[in-house]
Design brief:
The protein is 37% helix and 23% strand. By secondary structure, it is an alpha/beta fold. The chain folds into 2 domains: 245 residues, Metallo-beta-lactamase, Chain A (4-Layer Sandwich), CATH 3.60.15; 143 residues, Rossmann fold, CATH 3.40.50. A 7-stranded mixed β-sheet has the order 1-2-7-8-9-10-11. Strands 17, 18, 19, 22, 23 and 24 form a 6-stranded parallel β-sheet that branches. The longest helix has 26 residues. The protein is elongated and about 80 Å long. The mean pLDDT is 95. One of its GO terms (molecular function) is metal ion binding. InterPro entries: Flavodoxin/NO_synth (IPR008254), Flavoprotein-like_sf (IPR029039), Metallo-B-lactamas (IPR001279), ODP_dom (IPR045761), RibonucZ/Hydroxyglut_hydro (IPR036866), Rubredoxin-O_OxRdtase (IPR016440). This is Flavorubredoxin. In the N-terminal section; belongs to the zinc metallo-hydrolase group 3 family.
């Protein structure tokens, strides 16, 4: 894609990755983009780099606007590989450029690049850089989602370069939120925001909340939020900030996601009567079978609802591998304010349900016990018990949801 002007003399010079489907273990069915930004001023400045596989495309985009060798400053808001690995190629062209990053950014990036050969300036919250008519303000955002992270605020244009915050993994010809909403839908955009937050930023909710509060206290006016992935926010800024506030507070809809896998369909046969019990109790239900659904999609759907029920057969005295992988992935994301229950079938030992509850307790989720287990294949009596289990969980969920919404 060609460069796109965001505001007067501020350009998107990034790339769109239509093909990527695995982003460090997180499935990206929509693809993604790697965004970086060029400011034309007395001292031209580049904000962030891109993935090394696409750095030539970004340089071509820059070349359509300016000779890249005229760039005086490069700001690195985040040193993760998808943004910073393209820096090495840029430094071949710009050996005398001024680099700006946090102290932790310098420490981390020096593990990849010999920074002793370059002009590195470390910055902290409150520091500024005058590049001509514009002033760049730096705001450290450690653990959103790496220790090195920071925002750059372009004061005169009221543009916040937000690195990974407010991003989405979505490949699209539309560069702005309103364009995507017009050509697709607000629902798809919000789903991409939730998917990104649930699978990447969920563990850092408290940090994100404090930074949003800090920005509000600074009285910063924001006309545009430009993240390092996905579309740029210029129209629905209040909505994305509201959505983030809801997510960091772990708000959820009254509903339940049943996530399961099965060996010989015995565990699978338990799913529908549990779901019917929930539905008869007035609880919306979504059913996700692992091995047929990316775990990142399962996490996103689980994040949307207050209730999570997980089903697994017992294999080799433990949880079925695909379910164990899902729970391990979920545990690392540290969800909160969710009601959990477990069910499953077994042949002779039956530890899976117990093990799943132990994992949920380690996550500090609220648990609904006891779970339900059946030997080999569920009988009619077992299926009736599954239905009653769904009813009972639905009643408990309504009480728990009401308490969490206060």
């Amino acid at each position: 894609m060609n460069p796109v002007e965001l505001k007067n003399q501020i350009y998107w010079v990034g790339v769109v990755d239509w093909a990527i489907r695995d982003f460090h273990g997180y499935e990206t069915p929509r693809g993604t983009s790697y965004n970086n930004y060029l400011i034309i001023d007395d001292e031209p400045t580049l904000l962030d780099a891109v993935h090394h596989d696409f750095v030539h495309t970004s340089i071509e985009n820059i070349s359509r606007i300016i000779d890249p060798r005229k760039i005086k400053h490069i700001v690195i808001n985040h040193i993760e590989n998808d943004h910073a690995t393209g820096l090495e190629k840029l430094l071949e062209i710009l050996p005398d450029v001024n680099l700006y990053m946090t102290e932790k950014g310098k420490k981390g990036l020096s593990r990849f690049i010999d920074l002793s050969k370059y002009k590195v300036n470390t910055v902290k919250s409150g520091d500024t850089l005058k590049i001509g008519k514009r002033t760049l303000h730096f705001i450290e955002t450690p653990m959103m989602h790496w220790p090195d992270s920071m925002f750059t605020y372009i004061k005169e244009d009221k543009v916040l370069i937000s690195q990974d915050a407010f991003g989405q993994h979505i490949a699209t010809v539309e560069r702005f939120d309103d364009e995507l909403v017009q050509n697709r839908s607000m629902e798809e955009l919000e789903d991409a925001v939730i998917d990104y937050y649930a699978n990447i930023l969920m563990p850092y909710g408290n940090v994100i909340k404090s930074k949003i509060d800090e920005i509000k206290k600074l009285g910063i006016e924001i006309d545009m939020i430009a993240p390092d992935h996905g579309v740029i926010w210029r129209t629905h800024i209040d909505r994305v900030l509201s959505l983030y506030s809801e997510m960091v507070d772990a708000k959820a809809k009254l509903g339940t996601v049943i996530v399961y896998d099965t060996m010989w369909h015995s565990t699978e046969q338990m799913v529908m009567p549990i779901a019917r019990g929930l539905e008869d109790e007035g609880i919306p239900v979504k059913i996700i079978k692992l091995r047929a659904t990316p775990k990142s999609v399962a996490v996103k759907e689980a994040w949307k609802t207050r209730g999570l029920i997980v089903g697994s057969p017992t294999l080799n005295n433990g949880v079925f591998p695909s379910v164990a992988e899902f729970l391990t992935y979920l545990k690392g994301l540290r969800p909160k304010k969710r009601l959990f229950a477990a069910f499953g079938s077994y042949g002779w030992s039956g530890e899976a349900v117990k093990d799943m509850y132990e994992t949920a307790k380690a996550m500090k989720l609220e648990v609904f016990e006891p779970g339900i287990r059946v030997l080999y294949k569920p009988s009619e009596e077992d299926l009736a018990k599954c239905y009653e289990f769904g009813i009972a969980f639905g009643k408990a969920l309504k009480e728990y949801h009401a308490k969490m919404e206060v």
